[in-house]
Amino acid sequence: MQALFALPLSESFLRVGIFALCFTGFALAELRWPRRRQHVGRWQRWPSNLGLVVLSTVCLRVLLPLGAVGAAAFAAANGVGLLNRFSLPFLADALIGFIALDLAIYFQHRAFHRVPWLWRLHRMHHADLELDVSSGLRFHPLEILLSMGYKMGVVVALGIAPGVVLAFEVLLNALAIFNHANLALPARVDARCRAVLVTPDMHRIHHSTVPDETDSNFGFNLTWWDRLFRTYREKPIAGQLGMTIGLQTFRSPRWLRLDRLLLLPFVDDRPHTESPAHEATESTEQGLQPPQQERRQAR
Length: 299
Ligand SMILES: [Zn+2]
Ligand SMILES: [Zn+2]
Description:
The chain is mainly alpha-helical. The protein contains 15 helices and no strands. Helix 3 (42-63) packs across helix 7 (141-158) and helix 4 (67-78) runs antiparallel to helix 8 (162-180).
């Protein structure tokens, strides 16, 4: 087992191979078993969503080439980090590292919703008008860079092993594709999965236009943190088929263009009154402020 996690070669091959397999598999599955009828199709959304992946990858390679696995290797080589101070059995070490990293990502996600300037970056992920496999890859390059910096810090502070970090990143990527998919899982399978893993029905609630729902279900991998910290929501108020996805503003097709998406964090805090892309929604300023502030102002 340890040898598997210590494999030095073909890290990129492993990442790209599993990514391609998951993306293709779930993209085909959501075509065959769609959960919701989509009003804005793949042709309108995928070029920008996939373009963001390319841009983010280039930014990471140029600006943070070490990456989280490199940071973990540095920590291991120099005996830095909490876990490197103890000689725990490998499986215990791996499990603690994996769970701690998932918890750190949960709190990072909550911070991106709470802190106004972080929300400006993260709202681009929420502005997608539909959810499917491509939405799981749709993050602003600045959010990707910040997330990587944070993850590298956590990895070094805790001394998580490089193989565990690699496994975590590959799984996080695969699960992000899975839990953003427009995929209809049988209710029983969904319920069983949710005991541990975030399912598409669970994460979709996080993409609701209703601020209370946007501020729920922050987990990406494990569902435990949302249950433990009381941010778990089982169902959306309007139901899975009736709920509206996205933000109440940024509903015009112009916000689907890649250049607009990159500029979205820097748009002024003023109302946008463009005509909606599909269904009509209330015209408010959601998306310009963190959802908590939306609620406070609504009271
Ligand atoms: Zn979010
Ligand atoms: Zn999401």
